């Protein structure tokens, strides 16, 4: 049975306290390092009758990168990786939204990291909606997408004695979204 999304039509603001914008990358070819960005803003315009009229905007403060290791985070902020002083924000602006399944919405847009803009497509699975204790309508979505960091000019690496490299070129971006409908 397909969900009726018409009641969800409106403009939403990301609830930063209940949203995670994360990533994972393979480290030393044997494990994954996971992290997140802790400072971001975003809005979504949802058109439940015609999803193609929906849109998403996201701005991430690059300096807010957090892998729970201060030394690593410091390195990720340098010219080797994000160059946060020169490129303080990572942005995403949707160019199209389509319903790709009963509860799946395919969001395509322009991802900008370090002044390089590339198209990415994320399939978001609708997690549901609810009225919270304050009377707000909340919606939830989860999605992820793999990107190639060298496509965005992030090329730092180190060879390992055993072969391979220190940091994978592929990075998975992970989104666990909670958004509140604007009054």
List the helices and strands and how they pair.
Elements: E1 10-14, E2 20-27, E3 31-37, E4 40-46, E5 55-61, E6 65-66, H1 70-76, E7 89-101, E8 104-113, E9 116-131, E10 137-148, E11 167-181
Antiparallel strand pairs: 1-4, 1-11, 2-3, 2-11, 3-6, 4-5, 5-7, 7-8, 8-9, 9-10, 10-11
Give a written overview of the molecule.
There is one protein chain. By secondary structure, the protein is mostly beta strands. The chain has a single domain (6-181), classed as Lipocalin, CATH 2.40.128.110. 4% of the residues lie in helices and 56% in strands. It contains 1 helix and 11 strands, in the order ββββββαβββββ. The chain has one helix at 70-76; strands spanning 10-14, 20-27, 31-37, 40-46, 55-61, 65-66, 89-101, 104-113, 116-131, 137-148, 167-181. An 8-stranded antiparallel beta barrel has the order 1-4-5-7-8-9-10-11. Strand 7 and strand 8 form a beta hairpin. The protein is elongated.
CATH superfamily: Lipid/polyisoprenoid-binding, YceI-like
Helix content: under 10%
Shape: elongated
CATH class: Mainly Beta
CATH topology name: Lipocalin
Order of neighbouring strands in the sheet with most strands? 1-4-5-7-8-9-10-11
Query: Architecture, CATH level 2?
Result: Beta Barrel
Oligomer: single chain
Question: Number of DSSP helices?
Answer: 1
Mean pLDDT: 91
**What is the total domain count?**
1
Structural class: mainly beta
Strand content: over 45%
What characterizes the major β-sheet?
8 strands, antiparallel, barrel
Return the string of H and E elements: EEEEEEHEEEEE
Radius of gyration: 18 Å
Terminal-residue CA separation: 30 Å
How many strands?
Answer: 11
Low-confidence stretches: none
């Amino acid at each position: 049975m397909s969900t009726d999304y018409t009641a969800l039509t409106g403009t939403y603001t990301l609830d930063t306290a209940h949203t995670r914008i994360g990533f994972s990358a393979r480290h030393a070819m044997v494990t994954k390092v996971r992290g997140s960005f802790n400072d971001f803003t975003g809005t979504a315009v949802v058109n439940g009758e015609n999803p193609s009229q929906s849109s998403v905007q996201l701005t991430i403060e690059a300096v807010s990168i957090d892998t729970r290791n201060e030394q690593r985070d410091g390195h990720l902020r340098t010219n080797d990786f994000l160059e946060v002083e020169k490129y303080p924000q990572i942005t995403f602006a949707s160019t199209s939204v389509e319903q790709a399944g009963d509860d799946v919405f395919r969001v395509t847009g322009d991802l900008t990291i370090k002044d390089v803009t590339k198209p990415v497509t994320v399939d978001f699975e609708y997690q549901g909606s609810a009225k919270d204790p304050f009377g707000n309508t909340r919606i939830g979505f989860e999605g992820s997408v793999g990107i190639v960091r060298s496509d965005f000019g992030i090329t730092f690496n180190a060879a390992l004695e055993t072969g391979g490299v220190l940091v994978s070129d592929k990075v998975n971006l992970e989104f666990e979204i909670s958004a509140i409908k604007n009054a």
